[in-house]
Design goal:
Length: 150
């Protein structure tokens, strides 16, 4: 009986082909479901005398992914509203890049539809906090928030 030998490339191509599965036929019972809400907390309201700071998440025509603004200041009680303009992005305040012992929000879901938002209320002490888009951090989609004292 002959012995079969498969190269790594052959196995990878087979797995990829099986995983993709091709296009599925339309089903009469299939309905489009909207993506899940990117934030379980929903829209946030700033504290009295505080404001909403909008940070746009974009991919431009050259494929550059960025937060705009990428560096900004806020106060406790402000709300950071990360808003998807173009592309597919999330926001993540990594624990290992920020002051220890601060309760940071978890990474958001990926935003996929223009206009989707993630609201984060600033509750942290004075200091510098760094955030990123997980899929695009190595491409430079990072930002810095400076929380100022009242």
């Amino acid at each position: 009986m002959p012995r079969l030998r498969f190269s790594g490339a052959c196995i990878a191509a087979t797995v990829l082909a099986l995983a993709c599965g091709g296009e599925q036929p339309a089903s009469d019972t299939a309905t489009a479901t909207p993506p899940s809400s990117p934030s379980t907390s929903g829209a946030q309201t700033p504290d009295a005398g505080r404001k909403v700071i909008t940070i746009e998440m974009t991919t431009d025509e050259k494929g550059v992914n960025k937060f705009s603004p990428a560096n900004f200041e806020a106060h406790r009680g402000d709300v950071l509203r990360f808003t998807l303009v173009t592309g597919v992005h999330n926001v993540h305040f990594l624990a290992d890049s920020n002051p220890p012992g601060v309760a940071l929000p978890p990474a958001s879901d990926l935003l996929q539809l223009p206009g989707q938002t993630v609201d984060i209320k600033v509750t942290w002490p004075e200091g510098k906090y760094y955030f990123q888009c997980d899929p695009h951090a190595l491409l430079g989609m990072i930002g810095r928030l400076e929380v100022e004292d009242d």
